[in-house]
Amino acid sequence: MKLTTLRLAAATALLGVALLAEAAPLPAPGDTLPVAPYAKVGRLPNGLTYYIQKNARPEKRLELRLVVKAGSILEDDDQRGLAHFTEHMAFNGSTHFKRHELISYLQSIGVKYGRDLNAYTSFDETVYMLPIPTDSKEAVAKGFLVLEDWAHGITFNDADIDSERPIILEELRLGRGANDRMNQVLLPKLFNGSRYAERLPIGKADVLRTFKPEAIRRFYQDWYRPDLMAVIAVGDIDPQEAEKLIKAHFGKLKNPDNPRPREYAAIPERKVSEGLVITDREAAADVLYIRYPIVPHAEDPTYGGYRKDLVEKLYGMMLSQRMIELTQQADPPFIQGGSGMGKVVRGHRSFSISALLGKGGYVPAVNALVQEDERARQFGFTPSELERAKRTMLRNYERMYAERDKSDSGAFVAEYVRNFLEGEPMPGIENEYAYAQALIPGITLDEVNAAVRQAIPFDDKKLVILMGSLKDTPAPAAADLLAAIDTARKVPVTARADKAYATSLVDKPPAPGRIVAETEDKVLGTTELTLSNGVKVVLKPTDFRNDQVLMSAVRFGGQSLFGVEDVFNARYAGALAAQMGVANYAPADLQKVLAGKSVTAGAVLGELTEGVGGSAGSADLETLLQLTWLKMTQPRRDEALFNSFVGRQRDLARNALARPEAEFAEAIRAALYGDNPRVPRAPRPEDFDKVQLDRVQQVYRERFASAKGMVFLLVGNFDPVKVRPLVATWLGSLPTPDIPVAYRDLGVRPVRGVVRKEVRRGKEAKSNVSITFTGTTEFSLAEQMRMQALVEVLNLKLTEVLREQLGLIYGGGASGAVARLPYAHYTVGLGMPCGPENVDKVIAAAFAEIRKLQEAGPDADDLAKVKQNWLTNQRRALRENGYWLSELQTARLNGDPPGRFLEYEQRVAALTAADVQAAARRYFDFENYVQVVLYPEAK
């Protein structure tokens, strides 16, 4: 590649390293890594740790976190599940916010419950997440007040606790199923008698139903204390102001006079190898795990430790690539495989091998996995493998460094959370980039091979697990699993050959086209180029990201142009093209050519549309265009890779049918559309018998061998002058023979009237309610917004009434859309998991809330909350390349004014409660809906 921009990027990178090296000499191996210069880290006299960073992406937003080193592992026997229950209670009454007041207030300032405002509880920690707008000093101050209340002001009123019990129990019920049942058997073996096996965060139902309020208050008093807490504040705020607020709100917190020691559970050493076979007929996948000894692990905060981590990442990348290549055989030994070192729980990790199994069962998977790891252990990797991994890693660091001033606050927050909980070093990307540039080139093949030999154990202390429905093959005895591994290890393996590979995608560029016309839109900042082959290109240079360019081209057509006999040939045409590669490059070879570049591209054949798209780092834009040119002009044929993909997809489809949810989804589709074969559905194993290589390639070429009617959009950080010869060469040379570029309306329409259907499937005592309203409408952007408002206002009420007041559901709600194609229509649905005993109550309560909206319209406060959240999101989206690409592409495809999205705030302002009420009356027709309910099967 001979782009000036690439040379410039390389020069800039080298200059950056030189400047960094001049400013801060590289540490010695034993030196402790520094803290990132942009991070302010402190500790209050009471032991509370805090992290502060000013970061203006997104603008006018502050990410707050309260991190507590307390999770389910610390629960007493009468507290099973109460660490998680405590997290729930943080939103249900505190010193300054009564029950429901907190969520209501935060929604009023544009913070959405669930997506923005949330929390999680794990074995060893609880983390509370709170994004706050910073354009109001009052909102910022209240944000820190909320964190203070969570830290020491949760009230735990008896009535509030009792109101939350059914919600927690619904959450527990929702998690039940095949995976949960198998984990009940697996975890005691995996953790080898450790306390971790007995302290799943969700807890035990009998404790959750009957615990005395004193038990949860005791947990809170014991473990929510400043010496186990961190406050994190990253965003558009003055660090000094943030520090003042932290000291004011958290300096007064006190530790108990006699604190319980915070101890971390150990995992006993496994003395002998064990096999474990777990079967469940509802399991959606058969999985093999080979888990080697779980060993204690602490983060090494030194420069030498950083180098070891790079070595580990390099061999992990190479092992992963080898596993991917195993799945690309004509008859792959498994659907998906993996191998490497990974965290198990806090302070522990192990080397493991895993595979998602196909119809061949566990024996071929064991043979392939064990022998591939043995190959790496005995012979290591090849020089070319290491060279490619290094180039890829260096490019990743280069991108992170280039985006250092455009990184989202959430990324920094996650790093600070890991530092507090795990002790992960956080030297900052400026330092890490310098370290990577200095260290990666000097890592030797001998060093990597020695590390992988040490990482892959060869001992008798493994746990071998086979779990799933195992319906294709008889379940083996546990001893058979261990014997299969021993047999596989006895098979001699040979070193991998170090093959030469190409260094460029295209040997001879095509004759370039010409730019024959050009127009500018000064409002949008776009330039439209018309090329000599008729293809149009819209350029939108931005500074939203420093090292990102997005590309997309979409037109009408898609699967609708093919007959019913080609439904699956058309559906999988794009995916199969990707699986077989381009020109002379199989996917594995293509990845080698692209090592060290940040680029991805693909083609998609949708129901009514088709297109190509991708993304690249700014220096790799020409490679993106080259790859797109190859995908359209030189799709590759490979029967072995075709058979591999089809076989794996068939196995996935077979496995998925075991889930009760799969039958439920199919029942919904059938109730709405009958047996219409043109309605998309989950594939069945026999569907892949209809997928034929010759026909798939013919379908692909029919739609992608011509660029007629395509408008390519480029959005991101690029030089619009330098990009012109590139698009003229790679897009201007695309063939444009005449093909149809319109979709066909296939006449797919939902049933009319009221349809009710029941599905009885599944062992667990849980149900799911699906109610779908459909019909025709008039399409407009305003009507889209009315539907969106209706759905979001209704969701507020469903959460408030069905969850918080009645305790009938944990999650679920409404979704809906107004669509213009292939005809103007709407779909709005309710999905509400619940207990079988509560199905009628849930339906009645949901319908009652809908009727209230129809009769009285939405509450003014609820509509204001929805609109404020929209405006917050819109202002953030306007600084994202992906949003601009999507909006420009949609407008172009549908013939809308290209700048329609710039009028979004005016449309929001114009939306009224009367609009939402009218939409509720229009879209919820109680004489026309489909109701499908999933019940457990009869015992």
TrEMBL record:
GO molecular function, one term: metal ion binding
Residues of the Peptidase M16 N-terminal domain: 54-172
UniProtKB keywords: Hydrolase, Metalloprotease, Protease, Signal, Zinc
Residues of the Peptidase M16 C-terminal domain: 211-392, 691-868
A Gene Ontology biological process term: proteolysis
InterPro entries listed in its UniProt record: Metalloenz_LuxS/M16 (IPR011249), Pept_M16_N (IPR011765), Peptidase_M16 (IPR050626), Peptidase_M16_C (IPR007863)
Record-linked SUPFAM superfamilies: LuxS/MPP-like metallohydrolase
Signal peptide (from-to): 1-23
Alphabetized Pfam families for the sequence: Peptidase_M16, Peptidase_M16_C
Family the entry assigns: Belongs to the peptidase M16 family.
Listed name of the protein: Insulinase family protein
